[in-house]
Amino acid sequence: MKIAVCPGSFDPVTNGHLDIIERASQIFDQVVVGVLENPNKTPLFSVEERCDLLTSVTRYLPNVKIDYFHGLLVDFAEKHGAQVIVKGLRAVSDFEIEFQMALANKRLKPTIETMFIMTRHEYSFLSSSIVKQVFELGGRLPGLLPPAVEVALQEKFQRRVK
Ligand code: PNS
Fold first, then answer.
1. Which residues contact 69 (CB under 8 A, 6 or more apart)?
2. Residue 71 above 60 pLDDT?
3. What are the residue boundaries of the structural domains of the chain, listed by start?
4. What whole-number distance in Å separates Cα of residue 121 and Cα of residue 153?
5. Domain 3-161 carries which CATH code?
6. Known catalytic residue: 2?
7. Which is catalytic among the residues 50, 87, 90, 132?
8. N or C: which end of the chain has fewer CB within 10 A?
9. Per-residue pLDDT, 92
10. Which 3-state string (H, E, C) describes the chain?
11. Model confidence pTM above 0.85
């Protein structure tokens, strides 16, 4: 059985992430989405909220499951029996850091491969950071977010203003 992990912060999940997860799910028998719980960062959404949103938006993909992790990604991959780490690649600017991480992960666990799926051009500029900035300033991004995420973002920023 070929198992892949799709790691990220997913704060929050966008249609760009979802597209990569869906395309990975067509290639691998099982995809485990790994949500990073980083104690050094204060995310907008808690790890539980990020996992709940991911569970809800990937419900139509039966071979995708959601879990969170802290520590090394390769340990998380090994825990799930994954042979592959799948990442989305946007612009050239992603390449340098992804190259570093792929080589570090290879050194840590040589049996695990990193593979990249190129983003669709319509999502090539999209990031969770841009999404949060736009919503915080009262803007919207139709077609770039799952509806449940749009609602969650609106609620989050409304509550902050109050
Ligand atoms: O969505 P992000 O924030 O770009 O995802 C980054 C992520 C989770 C893929 C990256 O931070 C990660 O792999 N963290 C785990 C820590 C780790 O294993 N580091 C050593 C090798 S790079």
1. 7, 34, 35, 36, 37, 75, 76
2. yes
3. 3-161
4. 24
5. 3.40.50.620
6. no
7. 90
8. C
9. 83
10. CCEEEEEECCCCCCHHHHHHHHHHHHHCCEEEEEEECCCCCCCCCCHHHHHHHHHHHCCCCCCEEEEEECCCHHHHHHHCCCCEEEEEECCHHHHHHHHHHHHHHHHHCCCCEEEEEECCHHHCCCCHHHHHHHHHCCCCCCCCCCHHHHHHHHHHHHHHHC
11. yes
* pLDDT tens readout for residues 76-113: 999 999 999 999 999 888 999 999 999 999 999 999 99
Ligand 1 centroid, distance to 158 Cα (angstroms): 30
Mean pLDDT over 137-158 rounds to 95
**Shortest-distance atom of ligand 1 to CA 87:** 9
CA separation for the pair 10, 145 (Å, rounded): 12
Question: Using a 6 Å cutoff on CB, does residue 101 contact ligand 1?
Answer: yes
Residue in the structure block whose two tokens are 């990937």: 58
Verify whether residue 90 is a known catalytic residue: yes
Q: Any catalytic annotation for residue 46?
A: no
- What is the per-residue pLDDT for 61? 98
